[in-house]
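Slide 14.
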Amino acid sequence: HTEDELSRSSHSNPGKSLVNGIKTNPASNSPKSSFPVPMGPPVYVDLAYIPNHCSGKNTDPEFFKRVRASYYVVSGNDAVNGEPSRAVLDALLEGKSQWGENLQVTLIPTHDTEVTREWYQQTHEKQQELNIMVLASSSTVVMQDESFPACKIEF
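Slide 15: predicted structure.
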């Protein structure tokens, strides 16, 4: 199916939604088990946002086995909802260990959270072994009345 066909079928059938491009039933507590994900070659991209603010609800090691990025952005900053999820950060390590090639990967957290700090400290040796670098930035951008952390990425 093309993206347009998937989009139209989602709108024509409001009881279904998409998880990683696969139609699922949102009433199910386990969307990944609704439809088996077809096997296929991995996709290589420069930059990927970890879905759903790095929530463990729909991101697992399979995501990192299939979506191979030079840079992954972790945008979660909601401890109450488990964002970012330690399980997802661990899934990155598990998924990357299956790549069979030691490509450089940079993880870019958009917020300094306790979860990312603990994960970084506890898995630092494994990160080095897998050629994963966590980008820490103390840069701040100020625009009009607002300031926010920032990171510059060049391709």
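Speaker note: Residues 43-149 form one domain.
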